[in-house]
């Protein structure tokens, strides 16, 4: 009635229904009928308005919802179907999909908000890699896993003491062989050539020997090969690559670990996941060492990142490849052909054959073994 009362004014009258109004006489019946008609018109009008408002409101909500959905999709693009190329097993992926939260609230309505926790089901699979900090004590003193990237600051000297770098530069130059330092794969940086003097130049470098001995005793490592890398300035870098044990079966049998000691200017070393392309980078200050296990070498590439810093002076890295006792708990590489038993037997036979030949005759392959000279 309030609504009708509000509308009540002489001009609101429909003249066809109130002929008596013109005469100025209103019967009670006429007035009641007129009020009723007016109320109906007014209620109709009101309903219509309400419906329209509702329509407008829901249109607005849909637009907001669509926009939110769009934003969500652009922030989290759906992963491309890379046909089984994912490094995690299909089973793991299926389990993860099943474990996705249903995003439904108590009343089983779809929630408009994205959950900030993706899954509440515990995931026991191995990490893609595990970052471990080693203390610069005498020994690493903990179990080494195939998934480990180990960082040991100040393994060979204090971070601020650059005398070891200077000594290495002096030692390598005093060998006095022009062709000892060669460009690695074009002109990325220099490496010392193991073939020169049959690798005997290393024995004439006490600083080099000190670093190799420190790596060996810290990780209880059976060292099979070593390398001297020299990054002269900011122009030098090392492209992402796998070390030989990831690509050559005969290396895989005796080398499951790479250790790199850095001296000189700090540079960033990067690990790039071979399947996803994800990059993790780790600064390497003077005196620091990093090491990585078997599965890290198989599943990631590594390199020394290029830098745009102009004032970059030199860095030397001494690398050791060899064998360190490792736990292969939750490895994804159990069926890798290099570690498959048949393949192992095959490789062992091949190696025996190579040794025999090299003992009887002058087999080049046999002589090369253990010198660590290979091109990637
Ligand atoms: O200099 C480094 O830290 C990396 C060297 C390296 O990856 C190699 O020599 O294979
Ligand atoms: Fe390498």
Outline the structure in words.
The chain has 376 residues and is of the alpha+beta class. The chain has a domain at 130-365: Alpha-ketoglutarate-dependent dioxygenase AlkB-like (Jelly Rolls, Sandwich), CATH 2.60.120. It has ten helices and twelve strands. It has helices spanning 2-7, 19-23, 28-75, 90-98, 163-174, 206-219, 249-252, 294-299, 341-360, 364-368, and strands at residues 130-133, 148-152, 181-183, 190-192, 222-231, 238-241, 257-264, 267-273, 279-284, 289-292, 300-304, 315-323. An eight-stranded mixed beta sheet has the order 1-2-10-7-12-5-4-3. The longest helix has 48 residues, at 28-75. The radius of gyration is 38 Å and the shape is elongated. Bound molecules: 2-oxoglutaric acid and fe (ii) ion.
Brief summary of the model shown:
With 376 residues, the protein is α+β, with helices and mostly antiparallel strands. The protein is 34% helix and 18% strand.
Characteristics:
376 residues; alpha+beta; Jelly Rolls; 8-stranded mixed β-sheet; 4-stranded antiparallel β-sheet; 34% helix; disordered N terminus; disordered C terminus; binds 2-oxoglutaric acid; binds fe (ii) ion
Q: What's the structural blueprint in terms of helices and strands?
A:
Blueprint: H1 2-7, H2 19-23, H3 28-75, H4 90-98, E1 130-133, E2 148-152, H5 163-174, E3 181-183, E4 190-192, H6 206-219, E5 222-231, E6 238-241, H7 249-252, E7 257-264, E8 267-273, E9 279-284, E10 289-292, H8 294-299, E11 300-304, E12 315-323, H9 341-360, H10 364-368
Parallel strand pairs: 1-2
Antiparallel strand pairs: 2-10, 3-4, 4-5, 5-12, 6-11, 7-10, 7-12, 8-9, 8-11
């Amino acid at each position: 009635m309030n609504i009708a009362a509000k509308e009540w004014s002489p001009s609101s009258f429909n003249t066809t229904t109130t002929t008596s109004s013109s005469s100025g006489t209103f019967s009670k019946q006429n007035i009641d009928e007129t009020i009723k008609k007016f109320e109906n018109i007014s209620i109709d009008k009101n309903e219509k308005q309400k419906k329209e408002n509702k329509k407008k409101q829901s249109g607005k909500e849909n637009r907001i919802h669509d926009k939110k959905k769009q934003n969500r999709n652009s922030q989290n693009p759906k992963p491309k179907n890379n046909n089984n190329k994912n490094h995690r097993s299909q089973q793991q992926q299926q389990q993860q999909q099943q474990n996705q939260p249903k995003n439904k609230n108590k009343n089983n309505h779809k929630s408009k908000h994205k959950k900030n926790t993706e899954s509440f089901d515990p995931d026991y699979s191995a990490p893609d890699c595990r970052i471990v900090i080693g203390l610069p004590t005498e020994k690493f003193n903990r179990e080494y896993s195939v998934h480990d990237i180990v960082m040991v600051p100040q393994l060979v000297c204090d971070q601020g003491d650059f005398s070891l770098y200077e000594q290495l530069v002096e030692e390598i130059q005093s060998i006095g062989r022009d062709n000892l330092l060669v460009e690695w794969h074009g002109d990325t940086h220099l490496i010392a050539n193991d073939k020169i003097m049959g690798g005997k130049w290393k024995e004439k470098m006490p600083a080099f020997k000190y670093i190799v001995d420190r790596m060996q005793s810290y990780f209880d490592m059976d060292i099979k090969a070593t390398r001297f890398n020299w990054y002269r300035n900011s122009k030098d870098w090392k492209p992402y690559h796998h070390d030989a044990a990831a690509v050559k079966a005969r290396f895989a049998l005796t080398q499951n670990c790479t250790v790199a000691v850095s001296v000189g200017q700090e540079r960033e070393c990067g690990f790039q996941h071979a399947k996803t392309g994800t990059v993790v980078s780790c600064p390497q200050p003077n005196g620091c060492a990093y090491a990585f296990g078997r599965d890290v070498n198989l599943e990631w590439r590594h390199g020394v990142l290029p830098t745009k810093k102009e004032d970059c002076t030199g860095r030397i890295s001494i690398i050791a490849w060899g064998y360190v006792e490792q736990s292969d708990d939750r490895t994804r590489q159990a069926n890798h052909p290099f570690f498959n038993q048949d393949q192992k037997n095959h490789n062992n036979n091949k190696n025996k054959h190579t040794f025999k030949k090299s003992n009887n005759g002058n087999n080049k392959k046999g002589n090369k073994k253990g010198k660590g000279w290979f091109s990637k």
